[in-house]
Amino acid sequence: MSRESNFDLEFESNQHEDYSVMPKHMLIVESDQTASKLYALWFNDMGFQTTSVTDGWQAMQALADQSIDGLLLDLKAPIMDGLAMLTQLRQRYADIPVIVLATVDMTDSLLEALESGAQDYLTKPVSQHLFKQKCRRVFLPHQKMDFNKKPETPTTESMKHILIVDDDPDIRMLLRSVLESYGYRCDEAQNGLEAIELVEGHSFDLVLVDYSMPLMNGLEVIESIAERPCESRPGVIMITAQADETLRTQALKAGAAEVLTKPFDLDHMLLTIGRTLKNKHSSSRCSR
Fold first, then answer.
1. How large is the average pLDDT for residues 196-221?
2. Secretion signal: which residues (predicted)?
C-alpha cells in the first residue's frame, strides 16, 4: 500500500521504524473500515503485522486461531462489545495487553474498561502521534511491563502531586486511575471546602477542580488558592460542563491556568496538565 494513499495525513517518517524485539501481530477490532485501515497502516509503519476484524465475536475467533501479541479494541464493537470482550480476555488471555478506543462521551465505559484490565486508551478521532506513543508504551516487550499492574512510576519525591476536586466519585476515580497510570501522585476532595483544607495542609503542584459543586464552587476555590503565597500556590485547571465563555474568562482572571469543558478529551487533558506543570516549574514569579 502506498504511503500517499487515500488518507489525507501527515506521517512522521517515510521509513519503517526498526523495533527488532517488537511483538509482530496485532489484532484490530473496529467496525469502521476506514478507521481500521488507518490503524493497520500506522501499525505496519511501526513494524507490526495486523489482523483486522469488525466485531467482538470475530475477535474471539481470531484469538483462538492465531498468536496475537496485542489488541486494539473499539469499546463500541458490535455483537460482543469491548467491555464484554475484556471480561473474556482476562479470563482466557490474561497476558495480552489491550488499548481501548472510545469517544469523548464514553467516560463511564472508559472507566469500566480501565478497571477491567485495559492498559491504556485512545479517544476518537485518534491522532497518529498519540497512537504511536501509546502503542510503544503498551506493546513493546523490552519494557518488561507487568500488565496486571500499573506502569512503574517515579519515586514519591519526584512525582508531581495533583489534587482532584469533584463531587462525582466516578469522575474522581476515572481521573485518578488515568493520572496515576501516567506517574502522578493524586489526592481527592469531594467539595470545595475540603479542597481548601487539603491545600492548606499539603504541598500540591496542581489542583484539578470541577466548577459545579456544593458548599463552594470551583471559581471560589480558584479565588481562595490565588490568595496563597506565591511559593506555595499550586497551579489550577478548572473543569466544567458549561461551555460558557464568560465563566472561562472569570476562571482565568481568578487564577486558573486553563479551563476544560466536559465531556473532556482525556488525551487533551493530559497534555494540558503537562503544559501547566511545566509552565509553573519554569516560571520564576507568580502572575499575580
1. 91
2. none
